[in-house]
Each structure stands twice: as structure tokens, then as C-alpha cells.
Amino acid sequence: MSKFPHLRQDFAASIVVFLVAVPLCVGVAVASGVPAELGLITGIVGGLVTGFLPGSSLQVSGPAAGLTVLVFEAVSEFGVATLGVIVLIAGLLQLAMGFFAIGRWFRAISVAVVEGMLCGIGLVIIAGQVYAAAGLKAPETGIGKIAGLPGAFADALGSTEALASLSIGAGTIAVIVLWKKMPKKAQAVPGALAAVMLATVVSLAFSLPVATVEVEGLVDVIQPPGADALGELAGPAIWGTIIAFALIASAESLFSAAAVDRLHDGPRTQYDKEMIAQGAGNTVCGLLGALPMTAVIVRSSANVNAGAKTKASRVLHGVWLLLFAAALPSALALIPLPALAGILVHAGWKLIPFRQIAALWRSHKGEALILVVTAVSIVAVNMFEGVLIGLALAVIKTAWEASHLKTEVIDKGAGPIQVYLSGNATFLRLPKILDSLEALPQDRPIEVDLSGLHHLDHACRTALENWAERHSAPDTDPVKVTNADPVNAREP
């Protein structure tokens, strides 16, 4: 026991994480358009492979609701058989990023972009899973899903099967939300699991006409990448998806790690090692043809709150998932699909950062705008391009703010007009600089003081020189520029 001083706490925590993970693994797989068992396989790999490796000791990995939209798009475009290749290469890219110490750079991504990404994903998940809860087929695009919701509800009201299905989905969400008000002993069972169990009992007891999970068997769904799937790598189309998988899965995992670090006092995350751990897990998932994995904040926070002390808890949760998938696969066939849709609607709702949007709007309206534009772009276009739009906006905003410049003109009525420039003189502010300078009278001596500049780029330097040469009238002293080449204003 001395070799494993925290075994009791880790064992108890592993059971809690396992119970949280089962409905989420299955729900994410079904929502992604792949067999339910593939979600369990990813959860098992998250425990037994990634769980063993160093990086973040208490963070738990598995299939994530945040990647559901991306996986569904990939499966729709390339097929389930090619999913393994996409995840495999994405995993190898993550390994490379970890070995080349790129992991820590993910902390430099704008928080507004990440929150916007989660918000956009949440909206698409909610819109798509409402159709699944009603047993209806969802439109292909994010805009189509949202625009079609009124029609979907109208269709559901006219169908007994759809109403029964929608009732199970709504009941599942209600149980998850109200479960937190139950006595502490009841809350030992996670709300999502309790909701699925109740939905299963109700649908069986009343013989409700609702669809249930299709079971194919753990071994039967394992699909290592074949020659045809590997051949897809020759085309350019698949590479955008691979890069999106690698970057978005990495960002989710490392931001989750930062959040988990705030929940406990144990060892801090080693970001590059965590990137390697995630890459190793996704490489194995790819070889098995399973879903991609990320670190998942829901499972990770459950792990910390349950009292886990070491990585043993997450490894053990992988063992319990393996035993469940091997011994009780038929239990999956009893689970109603609308119950899983309800779990994902709730998960999607939790991804929308309502408080952060309000706080950002009060303090940083530009950041709030980036968050909203990123979310809307993901809904309107797709996941990858929406994130790129958000990143581009964040870079433009930063560049604009970094080029802050103050122009002060002092005219005492007699003697030269004095102009003081301070801040950063970059090409972004050039129109403003020239407007101010060209408005000065040409028949008065002018002194331009650049000593307050932190940076003077080539475009501004050239424009200032040209203006100084041509501005003064023939019988007026030429423009005098002081400290035109200070040490701190040299070009980098």
C-alpha cells in the first residue's frame, strides 16, 4: 500500500469518471455518424495509452463533444473507412508538435477565438441534436439546421413517434439539470448516466416507439486504415481536415489542461509532454479506426472533484471502459437515441460561454466581437474556416492596437510649429500621420520630434522623409526632423 498511497482515492475517482464517460463516449460517437463502439474505443485508448503518459496528471482524455461537428463533416465527406487515416496523421502531427516544443505556443491563441470556437460548436451541436431527439434527419449545413428548427417542431407535433422521441430527449435534459438538486448520495451517480438509465427504463416499460443504439460488437467496428483510405492522402482535400483535427484537438486539450490546473494543487501541466501524450493517443485511435480524442473538461473536472491524486484514476477508468465494452455490449442496444441527443444538447449548451461574452462586452468589446464572429462563422461556413476567420480577426485587432500612435501639435503663434509623435508609427497609421502633417501651414517653420516613438517602420520613415522634403514653401525654413533614427525606433 505504501507504493500506492493514494490508491483508495484514485480507485473511487476512476469509478466516477467511468460512469461519466460511458454515456458521453456513446453519445459523441452516435452524433458523429459512426458506430457507438468507436466512442468507447477512443475512451479506452484515452485511459490506457494517454493516461499512462506524462503531461497533465489529472486530465482525462476521450471523444469530445467539441469535435463532433468536425468528425461528422469528415465522415460525410470521406466516409468512416477514411476516418482512421485522418486521425492517424493528425496524431503524428501532434507528436511532431510536441517533440518540437510547439505545445506551449497554443497558450498564445486568443481566448476570444477559443471561446468563439466552443460557442459555435455548441450552437451546431444543439441545432443538430434537436433533430436527433425528434427522430428526424438534420439538414447538412449549420444555417440549415437552425433555419429548419421551426419546421422540425411542426413536423414533430404531427407524429406520435416524433413526439415520443422528443419527450425522451427533453426528459433526459430535465433529469441532468435537476439532478444537481438531488441529495448528495444520489449525486454519486452522474446526472447524465442517471438520465440515460431512466430514459431506457421508461422507453422499455411503456414500449415507446423510439430508435435505440445499433450494436455491431467491439471487434467488428475496429477498422485499421486500408490501402484505399491511405490513397486519399494523395488528394489535397483531406489535408485541410487533418490539419483542422490536429490543431483544434490540440487547442482543446491544452486549454482544458490550463483549466484543470486551476482546479487542483498538484503538479502543473507540462504542455509539450501533454501534446505528445495526446498525439500518441490519437495515433493509436487512428490505427484502430476510432474517433479522435482530446482532453475533456467534463471528465477531468469529475476526476479532480472525486478526489483523484495521481494518473492511476484515469488509467483505471480506461480499464473499466474496456471491461464494460467487452462484457456488456448488448446493454448499449437498449439505450434510446433521443436520450443521447439530450445529453449532447446539454453538453452543447454548456459550451456556450454566456458569462464570458457578457464580461468581454463590458470590458473588451473588440474581443467580444471576435468571439461572436468566430461562432457565427463556424455556424455559417464550417468549423475549420470559422476558426481561421477568428484567428485572422484576432491578429488584425492586435496589429491595430500595437500600432497605437499619438500625434500632438503645439503652435504658440510665434516661432516654429512643434509636432510630437509617440507610440508606434507603422504603415497601419500612415494615413492618420500624413493627414495631420499635410494639414500644417507651409509658410511656417516646423519641427517634428520623433523621440517618443517606440517603433518607426520603413513605410512611415520613407513617407516622413518625402513629406519633409516637399512641404515647406520656397522662402520658408525646411522642416526639421529631430531624433529621426533613435535606437528604440530602428527597424527590427
Automatic annotation (TrEMBL):
<feature type="transmembrane region" description="Helical">
    <location>
        <begin position="12"/>
        <end position="31"/>
    </location>
</feature>
<keyword id="KW-1133">Transmembrane helix</keyword>
<protein>
    <submittedName>
        <fullName>SulP family inorganic anion transporter</fullName>
    </submittedName>
</protein>
<feature type="transmembrane region" description="Helical">
    <location>
        <begin position="78"/>
        <end position="102"/>
    </location>
</feature>
<dbReference type="InterPro" id="IPR001902">
    <property type="entry name" value="SLC26A/SulP_fam"/>
</dbReference>
<feature type="compositionally biased region" description="Basic and acidic residues">
    <location>
        <begin position="469"/>
        <end position="478"/>
    </location>
</feature>
<feature type="transmembrane region" description="Helical">
    <location>
        <begin position="233"/>
        <end position="255"/>
    </location>
</feature>
<feature type="transmembrane region" description="Helical">
    <location>
        <begin position="191"/>
        <end position="213"/>
    </location>
</feature>
<feature type="transmembrane region" description="Helical">
    <location>
        <begin position="276"/>
        <end position="298"/>
    </location>
</feature>
<feature type="transmembrane region" description="Helical">
    <location>
        <begin position="368"/>
        <end position="396"/>
    </location>
</feature>
<keyword id="KW-0812">Transmembrane</keyword>
<feature type="transmembrane region" description="Helical">
    <location>
        <begin position="38"/>
        <end position="58"/>
    </location>
</feature>
<keyword id="KW-0472">Membrane</keyword>
<dbReference type="Pfam" id="PF00916">
    <property type="entry name" value="Sulfate_transp"/>
</dbReference>
<feature type="transmembrane region" description="Helical">
    <location>
        <begin position="318"/>
        <end position="347"/>
    </location>
</feature>
<feature type="transmembrane region" description="Helical">
    <location>
        <begin position="109"/>
        <end position="132"/>
    </location>
</feature>
<feature type="region of interest" description="Disordered">
    <location>
        <begin position="469"/>
        <end position="492"/>
    </location>
</feature>
<dbReference type="InterPro" id="IPR011547">
    <property type="entry name" value="SLC26A/SulP_dom"/>
</dbReference>
<feature type="domain" description="SLC26A/SulP transporter">
    <location>
        <begin position="7"/>
        <end position="374"/>
    </location>
</feature>
<feature type="transmembrane region" description="Helical">
    <location>
        <begin position="162"/>
        <end position="179"/>
    </location>
</feature>
